[in-house]
Amino acid sequence: MKSSILVVGSVALDSVKTPFGEVDNALGGSATYFSVAASFFSQVRIVAVVGNDFSEDYSAIFKRHNIDTKGLVQTDGKTFRWKGEYNHDLNEARTLETQLNVFKTFKPKIPASYRASEYVFLGNIDPELQLEVLRQIKHPRLVACDTMNFWINGKLEELKHTIGKVDILIINDGEARMLATEANLVQAAGKIRAMGPRILIVKRGEYGVLMFNEGSIFGAPAFPLKEVYDPTGAGDSFAGGFMGYLAQAKEITDETLRQSIIFGSVMASFNVEKFSLGGLSKLTRTDIDSRFKQFKNLTHFETL
Ligand code: AMP
Known about the structure:
alpha/beta, binds adenosine monophosphate, nine-stranded mixed beta sheet, 25% strand
């Protein structure tokens, strides 16, 4: 039986501009990218809210990926909207507008069938909502969490409370430096791990990922791509591939964590090749496994 992962995060309508094109009100959000990426490996249960402007076509994408949407509530009002742009250095999004809309009054109520979920991902969303969700899960085996500068600036105390209760924190390098008030990443990792998470994963855009675990650091490059169209959701599809594979692997060891980092990087690499969900939605497990093998060659070398 496939392992189940519960994810809470945003389901959004994104308007994104990159040097290669733009989209308006396309399906996005942290929980969306995470769920679709993780669905190739594990059963996903989503907790989020959308407004009455959310189209059936978008709901069909969740269905197609077998994502359990019992926890996806539809309510009066407008769906969360995010507007951002990237310049030629695609590593950093510039947020032009964030409209919380239906998330402003959202009180997540976890369906009874979700409460025994073993794996939990607290996607990027208000840290108070992340905590509210975690409180309703019985005995999770592994909890991972993401956040962003918006919350580090706006709700630092609440965020520290949430990350004090998680096993893995997955953030980008700028956020790690900001959270730790420390420029050196290795030292920042030490400070962040002292806040609670046993493992810190730092995403570094086109430069790859670093994982800081007890007594070890693992580094992986990003997959070298000829064309990158839209980095939106790279972080969340990374987290989806990472958690999805880890839950499927069942054992949580340094080895399975490292493999999960590579599956996360594979999913992120597919995601950035197209706008919105275009890079993930038509993939097959064969495409994924074949890029995983290419990754192995990319980083393989013999010892002396
Ligand atoms: P990333 O994986 O970091 O590129 O995440 C991109 C997604 O995050 C977009 O699809 C946005 O809808 C979503 N997002 C942006 N800002 C926020 C926010 N403040 N809270 C929740 N989700 C957000």
